[in-house]
Amino acid sequence: MRLSRFVLLCILAYSLILLPAYYSSAFALEFAHKTMWGEKGVAEGQFNQLGGIGIDSEDNVYVSDFAGYTTKMIQKFTPNGTFILGFGTFGNGPQYFTNPSGIAVDSNDRIFIADFGNPTYAVKEFSSNETFIRSIGSFGIGPGLFISPGGVGVDKENNIYVTDFGENTNVQKFDPAGNFLMSFGSPGTRDGQFNNPADVAVDSNGNIFVSDSSNNRIQKFDPAGNFLMKFGVFGSGNGQFQAPMELALDSSDNVYVADSRNHRVQVFDNNGNYLAQFGNTGAAHELTEDPVGIAINSQGDVYVADGRDTDIHVFYPIP
Q1: Rounded distance, CA 213 to CA 199, Å?
Q2: Average pLDDT, whole number, for the chain?
Q3: Is 142 exposed, middle or buried (0-12, 13-18, 19+ CB in 10 A)?
Q4: Mean pLDDT (whole number) for 312-319
Q5: I want to staple 268 with a disulfide (CB 3.0 to 4.6 A). Which of 77, 255, 261, 314 is the partner?
Q6: Does the pLDDT at position 132 exceed 50?
């Protein structure tokens, strides 16, 4: 009888240990496919080579097409994918584009677009009515200079963060007026170093997440750019990556990663713990072949730019 009680107590204790894991699994985030739009082409609402996605305060969607046609390299859509307008002209001047990629929209609906083929005028800033304001950064190696700017993020104070996957291989921060503030990172594989940093996103506490694409990981830094942690390794399992691209944060500061070569989006909590994935299951039209861009609107809908199928997928969290 004593032995039975002992065994029972051991089973109970073991069950209590497993209970949090069970509930974490049972109530994990789930997502369903909502809609999609876009196709290969050069007409309104069509794309040649998708880059980044940004969403404004009214949930309008901005999409960059870095092989697009000359007058609409940036296209704007309603939340359900109705074309509104296009802007951005091919060229080499401050207000022109050659290869627009990452997009970020600040709280004043100012639009920031990285142009990695035109590093002399690295980041373009447009107003909410799509009027060109200024370019930020110029060509070179050093503070405030870029070789290949790719990803753009903004924080709650409207500071601007830009990744450079060229020789600088770092993240640079600018104030809302475009003045250089700081940079961090260098080429390599150690903590705080990068190999093709693809994108940057900032949480509500000012912590900075960087998609370290060719190192197949995400790195987290404090507001001063000091390394805090990393998560992810090469592979196709949960929490593993193959060329992670753009990042997005939801209202709970969960981290969404466009895991491009694994054909999916993965979701993590703010400490890098795996929560969910989507885009790689379901009907054929619901699958993402090469997710490169990602953004989240005020309703929690997730917009994913598929670089291979040249279309936009929208997913929503299941309550």
Answers
A1: 9
A2: 89
A3: exposed
A4: 95
A5: 255
A6: yes
